[in-house]
Amino acid sequence: MAESGRQPPPEPLEDACPTTHNFMIPKKEINTVPDMGKWKRSQAYADYIGFILTLNEGVKGKKLTCEYKVSEPINKLVALLNTLDRWIDETPPMDQPSRFGNKAFRTWYAKLDQEAENLVATVIPSHLAAAVPEVALYLKESVGNSTRIDYGTGHEAAFAAFLCCLCKIGVLRVDDQIAIVFKVFNRYLEVMRKLQKTYRMEPAGSQGVWGLDDFQFLPFIWGSSQLIEHPYLEPRHFVDEKAVNENHKDYMFLECILFITEMKTGPFAEHSNQLWNISAVPSWSKVNQGLIRMYKAEEKRDSSSSREVSFSFLG
């Protein structure tokens, strides 16, 4: 993960809703390898990566427990995620021979499939109601696949796309960026971890020991940005159990490490080899830059997968 040039400056979040939008239901557009070039050159790709980098810059050096503005749309998004959480409690796992892929997830997902547009309509104001069907599809794509009962970074990307869409139509604004990560995305992670544990979901498209993590990627990027120029925590400390236990409530990266150690057994270097290697990087800044490069490669792989819906991004 050696440094190879500086990252381009991120695009700012939308601070006002453009005057016109053409709303459409997203459909898959990346079907062959050559289609990837079209995707990489698209405005949707630029918007998505710019959104990720803007939030990365916004949370740099900040703790999860710091003070930040919480707007009404942010609170409505948290309420939406709280509803998804409550539905898990109302849909207990089934008794079945197979340990993984509990079929009760399909019951839970069917409720989301039915109610997604109603949920999204609580967040999007009435004058933008035409956007609801398009934006709701990203929410449905963000929680895993109901046929395979799996979840992975492609689903996580769909939730980031969901939030990006809300920025593009002006529901979320520039001064929401810290709350988008710390309040909304962090709550999303909590709900996804509960889904994974309750229904024993399989990793989607996992690269096994060669992947960064079975389920997530973005909290490692934003979490490493939080730790840039930390007075004493260095990358080598995230493999230290004491350091993780004492600081995980402040930093997304360490919260991810804690979850991994709760879910996996054996030496960390064996079950999470990529992360183990990252712990040898000398600074959080270099970790962050390297993870961004890794994510662009990972995002490219996920976008070309036949499992993922393509981005329309309110074009």
TrEMBL record:
Main subcellular localisation: cytoplasm
InterPro entries: Phstyr_phstse_ac (IPR004327), PTPA_C_lid (IPR043170), PTPA_sf (IPR037218)
Enzyme class per UniProt: isomerase
SUPFAM superfamilies: PTPA-like
Gene Ontology molecular function, alphabetical: ATP binding; metal ion binding; peptidyl-prolyl cis-trans isomerase activity; phosphatase activator activity
Catalyzed reactions per annotation: [protein]-peptidylproline (omega=180) = [protein]-peptidylproline (omega=0)
Location in or out of the cell: Cytoplasm; Nucleus
Enzyme Commission number(s) from the entry: 5.2.1.8
Keywords for the protein's UniProt record, in alphabetical order: Acetylation, ATP-binding, Cytoplasm, Isomerase, Magnesium, Metal-binding, Nucleotide-binding, Nucleus, Rotamase
Membrane-spanning intervals of the chain: none
GO CC list: cytoplasm; nucleus
Sequence similarity: Belongs to the PTPA-type PPIase family.
Cited PANTHER family: SERINE/THREONINE-PROTEIN PHOSPHATASE 2A REGULATORY SUBUNIT B, SERINE_THREONINE-PROTEIN PHOSPHATASE 2A ACTIVATOR
Function in brief: PPIases accelerate the folding of proteins. It catalyzes the cis-trans isomerization of proline imidic peptide bonds in oligopeptides. Acts as a regulatory subunit for serine/threonine-protein phosphatase 2A (PP2A). Modulates PP2A activity or substrate specificity, probably by inducing a conformational change in the catalytic subunit, a proposed direct target of the PPIase. Can reactivate inactive phosphatase PP2A-phosphatase methylesterase complexes (PP2A(i)) in presence of ATP and Mg(2+).
Name recorded for this polypeptide: Serine/threonine-protein phosphatase 2A activator
Taxonomic placement: Eukaryota, Metazoa, Chordata, Craniata, Vertebrata
Gene: PTPA
